[in-house]
Amino acid sequence: MKLLLTGAGGFLGRRLADSLLAHGVEDLRLHFRQKPAAVLLEDLRRRHPQASLSAVSANLASRQGLPAMIDDADCIVHAAAGMRGASADMFANTVVATRNLLEAAGNRGVRRVVLTSSFATFRTADLPRGAVLSESTPTEATGVEKGPYGFAKTRQEQVFREMQAQFGFDWAIARPGVIYGPGGPPLSPRVGIQALGCFYSLGGRTLLPVTYVDNCADAIAIVALRAPSASVFNVVDDDLPTGGAFLRLYRSKVKRLRVVPVPYWCLLAAARGFVRYNRASSGQLPALMTPYTVRSMFRPLRYSNQALKDLGWCQRVPTALALERHFDWLRAQQDAREALPTA
Predict the structure, then answer these.
(1) Does residue 341 fall inside a structural domain?
(2) E strand intervals along the chain
(3) What is the pLDDT of residues 274-288, one digit of tens each?
(4) CA–CA dist 323, 246 (Å, integer)
(5) Would you say residue 246 lies in a domain?
(6) d(Cα 120, Cα 145) in Å, to the nearest integer?
(7) CATH number for 128
(8) Threshold 0.85, pTM exceeds
(9) Under a CB-based contact definition with an 8 Å cutoff, are residues 180 and 118 in contact?
């Protein structure tokens, strides 16, 4: 089976390429948006000398070159997406890119497509406190109220299902929570935000739905290779830390911060004030946060990964070790920045 992995140069994609090969893929084509990463390819060939590896560059937001990239692929693992930038860029690199890719895949007769989606697609604002978020939790109708990323990922899933209905390929969806680890962002907005010289701790006692990047890559590889068609899987680790615990580790191991704890009720009240201020200014001043986003991101919930375990996934890196690796890497980055000569 020839497998095509999109987004192979990204934070997750690099680990996912290694996990796919480790789980038995012998013919892997890696997609990069720009020039293929020679160091990555060399490392993968060294670690998996039995595998056939190739690389291709393409901008998925353009249809040009996609048929040739997809040619003779049996399965596509679609991990490329827009993670930052303007709203239009995020939409183009997530939604438009997915439509272009799947149109080309459908026209070339690709048999199976696995989508890397996100917890951002879940409609969590209406869940009761302490509820379990599982694969049966409803998804957002549009995702607009969750901002550019939530909207793009929600619309991506909808386009994915539309294309599947049109072309009839086998499919599965993996929805990771917050992915962390060396090379990734230091702190999720679910932990808090930096503003006015302080760090406002928003996560508090709420569990963070995190997955260490290596564990996440293993999970998606297993979904790609073992999951039955028309199945969806949450990707989240065991022994989840709270937002407050994650922040305490950051402060003790990486960088001291002036922290202002913001309780859930206070955050909700502040969000209502932001909305009123936005309306009073006739939209000239944006609402930094809305009650909907607060209820979506910071309502205390529990998270299930049982379906993933039933498929055969086992957390390779325990959470305590994963956190240690993450913060050790951040500390090394901090030390390197501090060692740079000042102008």
Answers:
(1) no
(2) 2-6, 27-32, 52-57, 75-78, 112-116, 132-133, 170-176, 178-180, 192-195, 198-201, 210-212, 231-235, 259-261, 302-303
(3) 888 878 877 766 667
(4) 8
(5) no
(6) 11
(7) 3.40.50.720
(8) yes
(9) no
